[in-house]
Amino acid sequence: MAKWITVFLICGVGSLSFSEAGYGQVRGPSTAPDTSAIAYVNGVKISRWDYHHEIDGGVLQLQLQNKDREPTEDELGIVRQEAWDHLLTRTLIRANAEKLGIVVTDEQVLNQLLESPPKAIRMQFTDSLGKFHNKEYRSAIKDPRNDSMLRHALIPPLREQTIFEEWQRKMISTMMIPDSELWARFYNEHAKAEIQLLTIATTDSLAPYIERVTLSEISNYYESHKNLFAHPEERKTEFVIFPNEISKLDSFEFARRINTIAAKVGTSASSWQRAAAALTAQDASSRRIDEHVLLPQELPDTLSAEQIVALKPGNVLTTFTPFGARVTRITSVAKSKGLTFHTRHILVSFGYPENRDSARLVALSIYKRLHNGEDFATLARDLSADPGSAGKGGDLGWVTKGVFVKEFEDVALKAKLHSVQPPFASAFGYHIVEVLGRTNLQFKGESLEFSLSREAALEAAMQRALAFYKQAVLHGYDTAAKAQQYQVVTEAPYQTKQSVPIFGNARFARWLFDAKVGEIGRPFNSPAVHGVVVARLSEIRPEGLSPLVEVERDVRRLVAKINWVRSAESRANAIRAKLGVSNDLTAASSIAPNLKVMSMTIGPVEVTPTIGEEPTVNAAAFALQDGAISPIVRGENAYYIIKLLKKTIPGQAEFEKGESQLREQMLLERQPLLISTWVANAKASAEIVDLRKEEE
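Request: output the structure for the sequence above.
Response:
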């Protein structure tokens, strides 16, 4: 009895996935496909059926990958964009293949199927012992009952794949690699220099050099390096974020229910337990947690240090969480073995190269500003080098002894509360610390936790966002935000097409580069910011040169870095002069004890070990003769003196021996770039009529 083949088509040029469960017959759709145009590419129609077929394939892949959940709107947006990009690419390649005379017939594809069955279909005719039944397979291919499936499900995508492969081979056959490029690659990979390297860096801090850069230096550098400050077309948004989390109102309702019950039944353990049992029994979103230890850092962050140490048995506390609320009744308060403390700090790092003196001066100036009345949190946000706490005003929260370095804990455990301490050093830099609280108390409590599902939280955020969107469209973005007291984020960075997906959302990125200034986008969910975003396109900056006023800070730092390195020039020249013609680089240690000579082997373009990317060092090393010592060489971070011990240069015979293999390797490396460049250029020059907006 003949067997039938089961096949499911998946989005992609010739990308197929086949069923492994039996041999069921594939039938076409029960209704006629919608062949109306969703786009025209150079006059060639792309049908709605093709577009949605691509999307369906992508969705099926998502479902197979994530069997435990449905695809999110963000994932579906990415699938739609990928389907669109794929259809454009396929249409352009197919048209170009026709121009090149590439034709693939059904007979060719059928022969390919007979001789080389796809792996997934091959598995359907492979028994439990691993034997492939070729005769049975060929019989199924030739079975008239499978004609429809072959014509509509198997042959078309395999023909597309074959056309693409033939087109790709033709494109690659036109690619040439000049002998000069081959030799340069071979030379860079095989030439080696064994060297001794002496690094002469400045011991100054970079900070004073930044302050001393003049406006004339900034202007001159900018004018002579304009290529560094060119930018593509950029677009900027302002937006309101509606967090995908439980609202304060909902949390308040949770707390109100518990506090109402607690007030009615009293604060005794038995009354609380009865209330907790009754409430958890009638509320599926709640759970009861029996008595457990609560460290100060686990208590509500709204409590001050004074309020925490004043807690007593029977006190009821409410903690808001991103997806629910926790209500805790304190059952006991006792002394623990260790201390817990709450601090905030401002960190001044030593910088590179390490310079404690300048860091200490900066720390002392900040300490003086604090004593003159400036706000600790503001200075921490602006000046602290600790990225983890700076955004929180320097707040490090409650921690137990043993978490921080000894120098920090010595101050935190002994300092007077609410008194800013003078700067002190640790391995991380200079700290300015204020101790906000300290206790050896340990609390125990029993809790009720209430959860709000993520789906419900997202739906609530989306509803709030939609309400704002409607008001913004009717009355204006700023007016609606002001009326509802929503914070509008205006300091978002510029976006380019290369930076998509923006906010982790491809649909929003597509809207952004189609929109006009002032246009408001529909709400979209953004995993990147854990919320729903309503954005307005606020500015379009055409491709061009960033004005000096925008990049002045960067230019100042670049000029300062050059001047900073140059400050070591006289010292480097003096050391080189003392070395003279001795040809002994190690003698530098007698001139300056802190100088060390490093030995290494480098190539013409390799990143130099221990000092990073310093192309001037590589170039200078290969310009030397064996045994010679270089003049001083200025790099990006220091001056260098190099002694070449031995240089190995590959010969012509060695090159000819490896030429063929290297050419093949370089062709393989350039294939993706060749294809992607062709596709990008073809898309850029194509006349595309996009009708997708009619569906949105």
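The CA atoms of residues 94 and 163 lie 8 Å apart.
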